[in-house]
Amino acid sequence: MSGPAMDFDTLRQAMGENYEQPEGPARNARAEQLLAEAEKLDIPLAVIEALGHQLKVYNYSSEKDKMFVPFARLLRLWDEHPEDFDEYEIHSLHWVFKWMSAGMLDQPHIPLASIEKWLGEMEYRYRLAGHSERAVRGAEFSVAAHLGDLERAERAHTAWLAADRDSMADCHACELHNQGWWRAERDADTEALELWRPVLEGEHSCAHEPHTVLASSLVPLLRLGRPEEARAHHLRGLRLVRPMESMRTAYADHVEFCALSGNEGRALELLAERPAYFTDSGDPRSRLDFMAVTALVMDRLTGLGLGGRTVPGPAGRVWTAGELAVHAREEALSLAARFDARNGTSYVSGRARARMDREPLVDRLPLGVRSARHVPTATAGAAPETDARPAPVPAPGTAARPGGDGPERATGPDLPALLAEARRLSRSRGPGAVAAWAAVSRAAEGRELEVRDRAEIADHAAMERGPEGIGLFHEAAELYDAAGDPGEALAARARAAYVLALVGGSEEALAAVTELYEKALALFADGGTGVSQTASVLVGRARILVHRVQESGEADGSGPARPGAAEADGIPAAEAAVRELLAFAGPHVADVRMASRAAEAQAMLGELAARSGDPEGAAELLGGAAEAYVAAGLPSFAVEYESRLVGIARHLGDAAGAERAARAALEHGGPALEPMGQAQLHLQLAEVLGDTEQFTAAAGHALEAAHWADEAGQGPTLGAWARHQLGGFLLRQGRWAEAAEILESALPDLTGDMHGDGAIVQTRWWLGDCLTELGEHSAAAENWLRAADIAQHWPEERDHAMLAHLAAEALGRAGLPAESEQAYARAGDLWRKLGNPHALVRSLRARAWASLRTGAGLDRARELMASAVRECEEAVRTVSEAGDERDPQVPLRLVAELGHTHRQFGDLVARSVTDDTQEGVARGLFEEALGHVTRAVSVFASLGDEALDAWTGAELAAGWLEADLLRPAAAAARARGVLSAYAGVPEEDDGVVGARRAEAEKILRMMEERGEE
Question: Which long-range contacts link 337-340 to residues 24+ away (Cβ below 8 Å)?
Fold first, then answer.
């Protein structure tokens, strides 16, 4: 059984509330129910308004095909009983004629003849109503453009722009979108973007703009080589269209952008977000757009060898990319064929094919948001030191071991050349040495080799094996001995000792390398080995001693060393070993290997200086080491030390030096850096630039860091931190929507264990700031409250209090006064605990206002405001008695806070008066309010000129209350007092003086008029 019928006012309220609900079937169903309610009222205008409401919600949904029925009924009512329509509904009826024109085009079952006939009907009715033909010509342009009748489209376009704008013309934002879209269709992308500029910059907007302009601009921006703008438009625009079911075409533009910019993984995620878009049939034209870009994405994945990958698609089965590519193309072409059959052309099918066959416009455009990698990317490896970390190669096989029958040397046609190339690259420390020795190892499988060859293969294999390489180093040493090279054997054993130190055996390693060191020096003195082999032993010894220093504590160079620390940590011994290495290598730096040894020695001295508490010396030495590597033609070897130098320079406050070092590290690393190295260096530079408020440049490097972290498979770790930083840099530029997208993307991966609770709190804090700027107050409050829940466990509760206060403000803006009052109470308790009277008083005042809005009543609001007054008065007394001479402004600020509290108390009481308040009660409330405001006037007056604007504001408020109490003379006196106070005071940029004078003069005029009456 249905309930009692609504009255007309309740019906109108229900329609208004329904229109504010999210687009979709639920809103449409409610509109249908409200039409049924309207029909019960026997009020023609109620039915007209309910039909108009139903038509609107259908138009902005996936069920656009349903809007023709309510419109036909509305038109019939207009023709039969025009007197039933009020002025607003007459305007609305003519306005939606345009929707019908576009709606008919979107439905291929509606014949073209009917559409053309409708255009004539629209033109006739607009002329009859006295409207300009601008909207008619705009509709004709849409028809012609859809048909591909370019000549007619240009004529209609010209006529459209030439006609006068009137109340039937689309808003400026929508018109500019369509005009720009046409220029882009005609390959005039620059003109299109210039037309769209006022919409993109916020000069013109509406309920659906800049949503569609942002989407339409994506491909033109890529074609023009402006990818950074395209990325920003994607992040900003997607956020706008996501909650709007009716914007499938714009959503498809974003999916297409991802497919054309190397972001296929992101495209799949967007498809997965809107499964209904694959099947919703109420708007065939937007479904055609969506299926076409789906085919584009799937063809792209298939072309990349991922056709077997599971992908999101129409419900009811599991899809692979290859299968969905076929299905989506068939669906798109089938829909296009229906339009072409209706239109008598092949234009729609041609455009659909062209869209599905588009090639990527950008190889790689990082977006910053988290996205699973769907496409493997080949990256070059770094060029490490060949005696430290060469490429991994298989252990020598049995055929490569000594002692085989018949020492027949391998003579494969490529092996001697491979060996020669590998040795050449090792001597020059070239970036291809890693790959070269790996090739030698592969080519040597199953062959008999010279002992020396086997020694070198084992030696280089050991360098990549970590702890497992120790045995291989010793095997290589035995082979070197067998080959008659005792110096290289000592070097291999020194390398084994260093690895042993790295895995915790530093005592044993030091003993071993000390013996090797003595043998090497003796052998070198007798001419039994060369400079390079001896230097390898010296560097091994120096590395082990420096490692022992580092084991004793972290070397960050952030402060002076503790007394006796150097000796205890073994710094003198390590420094002596390093200096011996430097002295030995110095005379031979013409050999790149020895130049590298000398540079490494200088770097080790820098690390020891940092450990000794000498950051200035460390910076100089590390910088010198980096320069030495670059001079030797080994720039990639400088990267580690330039990166280290960044941290020391930041500690020293040398921002310019830190930036130089960070940029040099990126430059010298170049394409040889592994993805993780790229991520770390870009993030380091981003943070350095952020320190100096170069936020635009910082954001660019944070974006690169996020991308490379994802490529390295570290999206949830380093990638999340990079996104956190990127969101902060975007926020500082006022790019709220972009920042919100990035921060929301970072949050799922941020964890207390990995990134720290502080990062999570800061991310949610920033996100709340962004959402507030975007008008998403409820979501802002949620983030601030969740951050507060984490911060409440910290020893210092200021952040907890601030977050609770911010959440309370957001809840109030979201229209949730009860929740707001609760959050203010939480914040107030914290402010009291922290001894912050200003924030405490403000939270109490806000609670009072929120309480009034909840319906708790004026008495409860009075209690809270009175508490605010008491807290403020007590704070003033406490500070005055303490006589704090450190900041004489403290008591003055508290007195001013007291004045504002009295002023708000008066405002609160006055605003509690409504039209329904009885006259006697209202007068009593106005008297009460005047008492509070008068106290505010007195408090502000005690502060003199410092509080002039606050005093005049309160005085004028008192004047209005005097007027409400029918005391014109008193009101006029207060107004004249304000004018007198501002006599000779110049106008300020903030406009306060002018506004106060204007308000005072208004009071005087009104009081004079009352006197005359």
Answer: 338/108, 338/109, 338/284, 339/108, 339/146, 339/284, 339/285, 339/288
